[in-house]
Amino acid sequence: MRCLARVATLAALAALALLGGCGKPQFSDAEKKTIASLALNTLPALKPDTTNQYADVPAAAALGSTLFFDVGMSLDGTVSCSTCHKIDRQFQDDLPQAVGVGRTNRRTMPLAGVARDPWFFWDGRRDSLWAQALTPLENPLEQAGNRAAFAHYIKKRFGERYERIFGPLPDLSVVPANASPLGTDAEKAAWKAMPADQADDVNRVFANIGKAIAAFERSIEPSQTRFDRFAIDLATGTKPEGDAAFSPEEVLGLKLFIGKANCVTCHNGPRFTDNSFHNTGVPPVNGLPPDRGRVDAVAQVQADPFNCFGKLRDGDASACRELRFMVKDGQQLVRAYKTPSLRGVADRPPYMHAGQFSSLDEVVAHYSKAPASVEGVSEVHPLNLSDRERAALVAFLKTLSE
Length: 402
Description:
By secondary structure, the chain is mainly α. The chain has helices at residues 2-18, 29-38, 58-68, 81-84, 129-138, 147-166, 185-193, 196-217, 226-236, 248-258, 294-303, 321-324, 360-369, 387-398; strands spanning 277-278, 337-338. It has a two-stranded antiparallel ribbon with strand order 1-2.
C-alpha cells in the first residue's frame, strides 16, 4: 500500500510540475512561441494558383464539385474521386490502400488544406493540384478512363456548363471514342493515329477537367480543434477552460512533440507539415509492388505533360520555381515520402503511405525504436520513449482532431 501511495504522490507531483499552482500549463517563452506557430489562426490566406486561371472561379468550382462526385468519370461507371475521398471521412477512405477499379499500392490522403501543398501524392509526382486531379482519371487501378472518352463525356453531359467557364469546346466529332497516350494498346494506337491538333484539343479539355476539380478542392480547409483553442489561450495568457484545458498527460505530450521527441521538425506550421519528403524507416508491405518513394517520382513529374513547364499551364513560368529548383537526385530521396498533415490524424487510421500501422500507438512506437530503412537511410534516430511518454504523445495527437 505504501508503494502505491508513493507512486500516486509522484504522479501528482509530476502533474503539478506541468500545471503550475494556479492551474496554468507551464511553458518557456520559446515553447510558447513554437506552440503559437502551430495554431490554425496563423494559417495565411490561400495564395492564387497562377497555373490555373479558373482556380477561384465559383462556376469552375461548382463544375469541379459535380465531377468530383460523378461515377460517370470512370471506365465502368462505379468510381468517382469521392469513392476514395469520402466527404464524411476527411476526404479519405480508412483503407490501408485505396480501392477504385482495382486496389492501389498507396493510402488515400485527406484533402483539408491540400491546395497549399507544393507537391502532390505521397511521392510528389505531380506539381499542381489540377495536374494531380487528372492522374487518377487514367490510372487503371483508380478510375481507369482515357482522356478522349472524358472529353466526349464532358461535351455530352456538361457541354453548356463547360463552355460558360472555359469557352467553346473543340470539334470532337472525328476524335476516337477511346484514345490516350496511356491505357490499353488500342487506346495508345488510337492516340498515336490522331493529328497533333486533335490531340492538343483533347488535352486542353482534359486539363480543364483537372482545373475545375482543383477549384472545388481549394475550398476544403482544416477546422479548428481543441489544440487551437488551447494554443490561443496560451498565447493570450488566458487560463484554458472547458475543452480547451489540457490534461497533464496532454501537456506532457505537447512538450514531447516540440521537445524531446522532435516531431515538430517535420510536423510544423499550422498544418503540421513541412511539405517535404523524408525516409523514416517505414517498412514495405508484403505483396505490394516495389515502392521507392520520391526518388522515382522525380522523373515522373518532369515527364508529365501537364506539369508547370507544359503548354497547358496558365500564366508564365515564374510560377514554376518548385519544379525548376527541386532536388533531382541523392540518397535522401530513396524511400522518402511526404510529411502528412497531422490535423484530424486520430480519426483516420491506418497510417503511413501504405497503411503500415493500424494505430497511433504503433506509429509512436515506430519512431521510438527507429528501425533502419530497408533501402536508403532513415532520418530518424531512436527516441527510447517510456510507456508513459508514448501514451502522452498519443494523447496530445488526439487534441488535433475535433
